[in-house]
Amino acid sequence: MDLSSSAIDKVLICSLTPYFLEKGSVWFEENLKQILQARKTQSFFQDNTLFLEKDQKIYLYQLLRKIDEMGYEKVLEISEPGEFSQRGGILDIFPINLNYAVRLEFSGNTIENIEKLSLEVKDEKLAKEILKKKLKSQKLFSDLKGLKPGDYLVHLDHGIGKFKELTHLFRHGEISEYYVLEYGEGDKLYVPIGLERKLSRYIGFVEPKISRLGSLGWQRTKKRIKEEAEKFAKELLEIYAKREISNRPSYLIDSEIEKIVAGSFVFEETPDQIQALKDIEKDLSKEEPMDRIVCGDVGFGKTEIALRTMVKAVVSGYQTAMICPTTILAHQHYQNFKERLKKLPIRIALLSRLQNKKMQKEIINKLKEGEIDIIIGTHRLLSEDVHFKNLGLLVIDDEQRFGVKQKEKFKKIRANLDVLSLSATPIPRTLYLALSSLKSISLIQTPPVGRLPVKTFILPFSPKIIKEAIEKELKRNGQVYYLHNRVETIKEVKKFLEDMFEKPPVFAIAHGKLKEKELVKVMEDFQNKKFDV
Predict the structure, then answer these.
(1) Is-contact 240 272, C-beta < 8 A?
(2) Residue 419 domain flag
(3) CB–CB of 61/135 below 8 Å?
(4) Alpha carbon distance 263, 152 (integer Å)
(5) What distance in Å separates the CA atoms of residue 424 and residue 299, rounded to the nearest whole number?
(6) 528 in the Ramachandran plot: left (φ > 0), alpha (ψ -120 to 50) or beta?
(7) In angstroms, rounded to a whole number, what is the distance separating the alpha carbons of residues 16 and 134?
């Protein structure tokens, strides 16, 4: 980054605190003398401000630690207030109390030069709002309750380390408490209580690589992620901008096939289902593409709405795809749809990675040639080799279980694609889009006729109660899920349950470590009532 500069002889640096974030740069200029006076007597100003002058002697490592404690974020290259970077004896910092960044050059333990950089704040009000949100989010995401030695923590400036212990150190004439983090090559980092906003738990499915203190690896990772996020944000903006000006012919009004599908529904539609169908019909009668989310509890009839919408798309001349987060769910939808549409001239298929390569290739070719009307699948539908002849409607089931990139991929391929998302618990981003009118929303809050509310009982562990509950459910020709929290001991639990009964019901085991084909088979057999528990 090319930053022109001009020499200055002193600089005031203030902490990221709510008090200072309320003040403008003019306030700091007007009150500089009072601030410097207060630094002599008031602990708040002693702890939360730095006043540095040319030729001042100060250890660079102490200055870096102090800046870190003041809430500044270490980055590879500074770009906005609240950031600092260090390369050898050069320290660049963008104080929150100034409209410009500064560079401090050290010679040994002496500040040799202080320079004002050309990097400036263009909109001070906006910059302060961003800093407030950053401060708030740092506090929000720093959840260190129940922290145990060995837990992985992410430090905003230094990367991933292992929590070792809480310890007390004597410093500045008083004893303070610190989090001790272990890093690569035996390095340790002491984070004072009060700076928890810089720490957050590591959340991931694999063991993380421990960072090294002082290396640039973590800063490069943050920079890369920030650049990727900005790039993706621009892509999203482009997608939504294109959709705003895109159009397609309106869908056909109720056809004979649609009436047959509606007539084959064995239940009575709820008022909310009827309203959701009207909302979708209204969307599809317009020329601009639909982007609607249907929210409703499990068993409230979202799938029926999806089926009828997909049939409407097929009748209107489009191919339609339903993407599901799991193979089991995809199989269930496929079997259900296949049964409902078996007497109609609608071609339906299933695509998942559990199918052999030959079958997958055959289905993909048929999709490309337009020989399949409805395709139901898993993430396999997102693969680069999957192409459609005339995809018009995408249905996303359990939309909260897909990432943003996955959900937006189809829209990127075809700007005027109609999208229907189904969810019991929409993620905050989806809700925000709905509230921002970028998505439409339909709520299904009325349960089907005859459906009783779910009752939850919290009781002490009792074999007698467990046995009675299972027997009661089986007597009404129901089935039972018994959830256990450890795969390693699940077989022992199965035997424990079987031993309760003189003539035990039929038990089966399902867990995430089974091969996917085995898991699908168990769940299909359970759905077909080959197992009781």
Answers:
(1) no
(2) yes
(3) no
(4) 56
(5) 10
(6) alpha
(7) 10
Rounded CA-CA distance 188/173 in Å is 22
Please indicate whether residue 430 or residue 477 has the higher confidence score (pLDDT).
477
> Using an 8 Å Cβ cutoff, are 393 and 418 in contact?
yes
Please choose, from the candidates 140, 176, 133, 179, the residue with its C-alpha nearest in 3D space to the C-alpha of residue 158.
179
pTM for the full model? 0.58
476 φ/ψ angles, rounded to the nearest 5 degrees: -95, 20
- In the three-class reduction of DSSP (H, G, I as helix; E, B as strand; rest coil), residue 365 is classed as helix
DSSP 57: B
Closest listed residue to residue 310, CA positions, set 297, 325, 302, 322: 322
Q: Which residue has the tokens 């000006």?
A: 245
| Residue whose token pair is 């961003």 | 130
User: Same domain, yes or no, for 265 and 325?
Assistant: yes
Which structural domain range is residue 515 located in? 463-527
CA torsion through residues 247, 249, 255, 261, sign: negative
* Ramachandran angles phi, psi of 516, nearest 5°: -60, -40
Instruction: Indicate whether 256 belongs to any domain.
Output: yes
Quick one: DSSP state of residue 157? T
Angle subtended by helix axes 217-245 and 404-413, to nearest 10: 40
Rg (CA), the chain: 31
Rounded-to-integer distance, Cα 50 and Cα 317, Å: 69
Total domains, the chain: 5
Say how far apart CA 20 and CA 28 lie, in whole Å. Answer: 9
What Å distances lie between residue 11 and 37, 97, 220, 291, CA to CA?
A: 15, 10, 28, 52
User: Based on the domain organization, do 231 and 277 belong to the same domain?
Assistant: no
Q: Would you say residue 263 has pLDDT above 80?
A: yes
Please tell me whether residues 44 and 182 are part of one structural domain.
Answer: no
> Are the C-beta atoms of residues 92 and 102 closer than 8 Å to each other?
yes
Alpha helices in 118-170, H assignment, sequence order: 124-141
Please give the single-letter amino acid code of residue 18: P
Q: Are residues 232 and 376 in the same domain?
A: no
Using DSSP bridges, classify how beta strands 73-74 and 49-53 pair: parallel, antiparallel or unpaired.
unpaired
Residue-wise pLDDT for 15-73, tens only, equals 888 778 888 788 888 888 888 988 887 777 888 899 999 999 999 988 998 898 888 88
- Among 123, 153, 179, identify where a domain stops: 123
Give which of 155, 157, 202 is closest to 179, Cα–Cα.
Answer: 155
Assess whether 237 and 263 both reside in one domain. no
Q: What amino acid is encoded at 400 in this protein?
A: Q
- Same domain? For 276 and 413 the reply is yes
Same domain for 298 and 440 = yes
Structure-token pair, residue 531: 């197992």
Pair (288, 430) in one structural domain: yes
* Rounded percentage of the chain residues whose pLDDT exceeds 70: 91
Both tokens of 156, joined, read: 């905003």
Are 158 and 215 within 8 A, CB to CB?
Answer: no
